[in-house]
Amino acid sequence: MSQVTFAGTAMNLEGTLPAVGAAAPDFALTANDLSAKKLSDYAGKVLVLVSVPSLDTPVCDLEVKRFNKEAAALSDKVAIVAVSRDLPFAQARWCGAAGVKAVETLSDYRDGSFGKAYGLYVKELDLLCRAIVIVKDGKVAYTQVVSEMTEQPDFDAVLKAVKELV
After folding, report:
1. By C-alpha distance, which of 126, 37, 43, 119 is closest to 82?
2. Confidence tier at 145 by pLDDT (50, 70, 90)
3. What per-residue confidence (pLDDT) applies to 166?
4. What phi and psi values does residue 136 have, to the nearest 5 degrees?
C-alpha cells in the first residue's frame, strides 16, 4: 500500500497502481445518466483518466476545467474522463454549472472498485486521490500520482504524454 498526503497528513492508498506497459484494469463506473461505463467503451482512443477527490472542491474544480479547456486542442482520438466518488447527479450538476462539456465525468460511488483496481482509493477519506492514468490500446501508457492531494497535477507532462501517444 502506498501513501499520499492530504494537507500534510499521510493517507493510505488501497490497491496497486498498474505499471506502465501493464494491462489496464477494467472498470465499472457510472455515467451521469446512471448508465454503466467500462474500459472497452473507450477502445481506439487514448483514454486520459483524471482521478479527483471531489468536483465540489476548489482544486478539483480548477483541474477539470483546465482539462476541459485543453481538450479543445487535442485530437478526437483522445477521451478525457474525470473520475470521482461524487454521486452522478452531483457530477451532472457540477458539469452544467462549470460549463464542462469536453470532459466526461464518471462516478466510482458504488463500491470504489475503480479506485482499488488502480491503487487510487484513499482509505481514510473514502475518496480517490489526485492522479492521472493514460491508457492506450488497453495498456497503461502513463501514470502520475500527485503526492499532496491539495496540489494540481503536472499538466504539461500529461499533455506532452497525450500528444506523443496520439
Report:
1. 37
2. very high
3. 92
4. -135, 130
Please tell me the distance from the alpha carbon of residue 98 to that of residue 92, in angstroms, as a whole number: 10
C-alpha dihedral sign at 13, 84, 82, 110: positive
Burial (CB count within 10 angstroms: exposed 0-12, middle 13-18, buried 19+), residue 162? buried
148, 5 contact by CB (below 8 A): yes
Question: Considering the entire predicted model, what is its pTM?
Answer: 0.96
pLDDT at position 40 over 90: yes
Top CATH class of 3-165 equals alpha beta
pLDDT in tens, 24-33: 999 999 999 9
Q: Per the structure block, which three cell numbers stand in for 108?
A: 466510482
Neighbouring-strand partners of residue 79? 47
Strand order in the sheet with 121-122: 3-6, 9-14, 121-122, 127-128
Domains of the chain: which residue ranges? Answer: 3-165
Ranges assigned E (strand) in 27-100: 29-31, 36-37, 46-51, 78-84
129 labelled catalytic: no
Active-site hit among 24, 47, 60, 82: 60
Percent of the chain predicted with pLDDT > 70:
99
> DSSP string spanning 9-33?
EEEEEES-PPPTTSBPPP--EEETT
